[in-house]
Amino acid sequence: GKVRAKQYKDVPIKIPNWVPQAHCFTTEFKRHEKELLEAEVYPDDVWVLSYPKSGTTWVQEMVWCICNDLNFEAARATKISARFPFLEIGLQSAALHFSFKDVKDMPRPRFIKSHLPVSMLPKRYWEVKPKTIHIRRNPKSVAVSYFYHSQGIHYRGSMDTFLRSFVREHQFYSPYHAHVIEYHELRDCDNILHVSFEEMKRYLPSVVRKVCQFFGKSYSKAELELLYQHLSFKSMRDNPAVNFENPKGPTKGEPFMRKGEADGWKKELTPEQIHMLDEWTKERVPNPEHRKLFE
């Protein structure tokens, strides 16, 4: 169902007369909204925020390693979902017993992943301003990746049917453009560092350098070489700690780490589908400054 945030006056957003749009969530969400808004946030928390399928796992792994003295052994030994839990995982489906327990019980400093829009983050987030990385990705890549992801879980329709429902904002966490724009329109939030998936694909070292600086960490060239190796697509794909494969599950779906390309959509989408997604972006993002976020 569609859920609109009820309390959002704490959000320091620059958009005049801003009213958040309704977002697509499970019905479970409404039951826990209050608990979510009142969740505790600590100054030493580290958050990774994004719309789904934007390269979140890759960024989580990069951030965790940089903040934990490049302890690759620990990174490989423990699943990312335990090192860096997903705040609102229980809101995904009624089948999952819901609680913020994973995040609440984490020893500090806590590492927290979330796909929530700015209007639904815990109220304390805006007072405490924990260090946060926000990642965005080209909408066409997100659309393709979301299709394969959904297929792996429950979706039985075609790519075309999925894309039509995606542009109608019927997928969880939609609307997509609003999510990205709102994170980029926050005022005085120097606790948030923005990165893009494409930039990480193009030149990972420059993103790593920014992230190290942001967390006040410095590593030698040789150490950083090991980090780039650890974060390479092949190494991520072959690492069970970050690849959400169900060992007993069906193997007919696409793997979680599928291709990891920046422009993979060019091979996957028809000219009509590309046109549809581009028109959708034009329509949703009239502001040319904002449009740069979706190139």
UniProtKB/TrEMBL annotation:
A Pfam family per the record: Sulfotransfer_1
Which residue stretches belong to region Disordered?
Answer: 245-264
Basic and acidic residues composition-biased segments: 255-264
Chain ranges of the Sulfotransferase domain:
43-284
Keywords of the record:
Transferase
Q: Transmembrane ranges?
A: none
Gene Ontology annotations for the cellular component aspect, listed alphabetically: cytoplasm
Q: What does the record list as GO biological process? A: sulfation
UniProt-recorded name of the protein: Sulfotransferase domain-containing protein
Q: What does the similarity note say?
A: Belongs to the sulfotransferase 1 family.
| Single Gene Ontology MF annotation | sulfotransferase activity
| Taxonomic path | Eukaryota, Metazoa, Ecdysozoa, Arthropoda, Hexapoda
Which N-terminal stretch is annotated as signal sequence?
Answer: none
Supply the source organism for this entry: Anopheles gambiae (African malaria mosquito)
